[in-house]
TrEMBL record:
Organism of this sequence: uncultured Thermomicrobiales bacterium
Location of the region described as Disordered in the Swiss-Prot/TrEMBL record: 1-55
Biased composition (Low complexity): 31-55
A GO MF label: hydrolase activity, acting on carbon-nitrogen (but not peptide) bonds, in linear amides
A Pfam family this chain is assigned to: PIG-L
Gene3D superfamilies referenced in this protein's UniProt entry, alphabetically: LmbE-like
The protein's name in its UniProt record: PIG-L family deacetylase
Residue spans of biased composition, Polar residues class: 1-28
Amino acid sequence: MPAPEDQSTASTASHDATQPTAEETTSRPGAAVDSVAADVAEPDGTPAGAAGDLPAGPKRVAVIVAHPDDAEFLCAGTVARWASEGNDVSYVLLTSGDKGSSDPAVTPEQLVATREAEQRTACDVLGVGALVFLRRSDATLVPDLDLRRDIVRVIRQLRPDVVICQDPTVRWVDQSYLNHPDHRAAGEATLDAVYPAARDRMTFPELLAEGLEPHKVREVYLGGAKEPDVWVDITETIEAKLASLRAHASQMGDWDPEEMVRGWARDEAARNPAGGEYAESYKYFKLD
Ligand SMILES: [Zn+2]
């Protein structure tokens, strides 16, 4: 089904994610953050450039994922590119990865401090502004109403035009990878927060009592999607992606992610109708 058209225009004002003005919190439907990617998502038969005619930004983008380093694997090239193009990118980490070590000398508290610092370094490499930690327990994330409410709260605070999150339908990949349950839970809770809870006035009235008005997210990109339908060219930002991954030193150890990550990005570029040497892929939604 074609994405809806409209006549809105993008704001060219810069903004602070923590202090949006009333004008900036007004939804701007149709203002695709990445018009080339949105064009790719148009079904056959749509006039060429239909989505490309939409204003391209600047937009507020929120990346909402389960663990430190998830976003770097999923979408760091896209994040670096969109940030460099003037979009305001924030990260929301649902856990701080407090189970992500087999070292018996490391406590969960120490690991949280290490991994949050690594995530901040990665964000600095990519040009990400706000970094929010919800500090849910790693490895036991459940997409319940409490988690949904917490994500709605942060969506209403950050007021993103665009959300990038994980694909909750990916249970496994090939015969070698069982998707982490936290990744599925994060995707499920985030999609349920985007629609309908963040936009509906009477859902979670306690948030309204906190002064948090409803907010409509206009675009959703599912990273690591089972059935991707858009590709973002990251040829210019693959180095930033690699640098951001290396910032997660506690997880990389002696392993250098370069060969594997370049291989994945080349494979995605080969599927990208717009070409390019490296790409990241997504399942794309443009919401009314
Ligand atoms: Zn993860």
